[in-house]
Amino acid sequence: MSDKTAEQAESKAQGSADAGDAPVPTYSWYALSVLVLVYVLNFIDRQILSILANDIKADLGVDDAYLGFLYGTAFAIFYALFGIPLGKLADSWKRIRLMTLGLSLWSAMTALSGLARDAGQLTIARIGVGVGEATASPSAYSLISDWFPARLRATALAIYSSGLYIGGGISLAIGGLVVDRWNTAFPEGGPLNLAGWQAAFIAVGIPGLLLAAWVMTLREPVRGAIDGLPTAEDPAPFKGFVGELTTVIPGFTFFGAASRGAMALAINIGGLVFAFLIACALTLVLGTGQGFIMEALEGATGSALPLISDQWFLLAFGYYAVFSWASALRVRDYPTFVLTWGSPAFLCTILGYGTVAFMAYAASYWGAPYAERVFEVSKVSLGFWLGGGGAAGGFLGVILGGRMADALMNRTSSGRVWVVLFGLLSPIPFAIVQYTTDSYWLFIVLNVVVGGLAASALGAAAAASQALVLPRMRGTATATFFLATTLVGLALGPFTAGYVSTQNSDDLSVGVLSTLWIVPIGLTLLIAAIRLTGKASGSVVERAKAAGEKFEDE
């Protein structure tokens, strides 16, 4: 079937999508509960780094800037980049199988993090965690959209997203408990001369291999059937995946660009040069120095390379790769490009949420190291109160935010974006008090409030972005959505707070609050999204059809 014919079929079926109020099958809720467990483990493996940060800093001799880089950029770049081809694979292959493989990979790499002996080994292991975790949300978002009708998707996605906050909270409790007990039992180092923080990584990594076996038993739903748009299985699911993979790997990107003509190749090379010139400039201005990645490249090539820190090198690598992928997408799947990168409403929505993530990731990661340094409490106490409170606040916030988004959606087409705007602005005054108070218990209470208010935006942003594309594009749209949360939020937020802390005598209060500078940018983006979303969501099929016809004509 040609793209034009496919878009026409989707156009005819769209009007009947989500008709009636038929109850959601029990199996859909069961499957959703399993996905929540996966996401819980996803964030246990990711967020446990927070409670371990001070121990890693002491044992490996690193600073706050590196800790922000390790949690943010080293993970985020590969999480985001591999999310692109894996999002494509989620659109064409068995999503259950994909999630099972990814869960197995990131769990194994989390366990291997516990065997790291220096910063380089730990960074490589965390990169592996990022690659594995990139399978989770593109698969899950697509599955949930096929298990739940549009009228309940924001709620279902919010329930799934609650795993983020539950896992983040549990990780602090588990990490604190394992470290304290291990170090008490083995003050000079335990079996294999492992420190407590290393044992904690292993303790949370191994259970994921068992959960992967459970995930494999789930049934794959018919893609698009719940919207009246059943889509046949792709006879060559890995073809698109390989094609997407080659568009995001620097080096191979030159061949992809060359296949589109001399001008495309010149633009691609120009994008690469521009990205790395910016990286060199940022390194010189901020004085973050050259890291082990560039040193390893120098050793492999035998030649001196420009002075670029690991932080800016990986960001340049990531942004150039995304530029290459978006350029290729425009040629290979123009309708998807038009509804994502070519849609101001879509871009303003995901980038607006990216600014929420910028502050939220910084606060959630640095909360435990900050409290441990300032209030001098034990890891067990901190893990229980900070982790438990953060989990409760985040869970309530994301669920109530999802329900609020669905309710407002019935009143206005931009209702979900209003909830994202609420999640951006409402935590600010509470966060300022939280990171300046002398009271430990007020800090704990405000952690619940700040986490809950920021969390309200996630389900709303996810559902708003999904509503701006066709069913067959959901995996790719999810990957693009997570580019904003990772390359804007995760890759920059924690590092910014850590870098500012390092420049201010390890003052994490100044570091975390420095992330508030992004609020005006987020406010501008979300106001624009509110103005644009209504018209864009009501013309999805028409714009996709027009893009398909234009693509065929060319």
Helix and strand topology:
Blueprint: H1 3-14, H2 26-60, H3 64-71, H4 73-90, H5 95-113, H6 119-133, H7 136-147, H8 153-185, H9 196-205, H10 207-215, H11 237-248, H12 252-258, H13 262-286, H14 292-301, H15 310-332, H16 334-339, H17 344-375, H18 379-409, H19 415-425, H20 428-434, H21 440-466, H22 474-490, H23 493-503, H24 508-513, H25 519-537, H26 540-553
Derived structural class? mainly alpha
Unreliable residue stretches:
1-20
Query: How many strand units?
Result: 0
Q: So what's the oligomer here?
A: single chain
End-to-end Cα distance = 18 Å
The percentage of residues in β strands lies in: under 5%
Outline type: globular
Proportion of helical residues? over 70%
How would you describe what is shown here?
The structure is a single chain. Helix 2 (26-60) runs antiparallel to helix 9 and helix 7 (136-147) crosses helix 22. The protein is globular and about 65 Å long. The longest helix has 35 residues, at 26-60. It is built from 26 helices and no strands. It has helices spanning 3-14, 26-60, 64-71, 73-90, 95-113, 119-133, 136-147, 153-185, 196-205, 207-215, 237-248, 252-258, 262-286, 292-301, 310-332, 334-339, 344-375, 379-409, 415-425, 428-434, 440-466, 474-490, 493-503, 508-513, 519-537, 540-553. It has 554 residues and is mainly alpha-helical.
Tag the structure with descriptive keywords.
554 residues, 26 helices, single chain, mainly alpha, 77% helix
Short description:
The protein is mainly alpha-helical and 554 residues long.
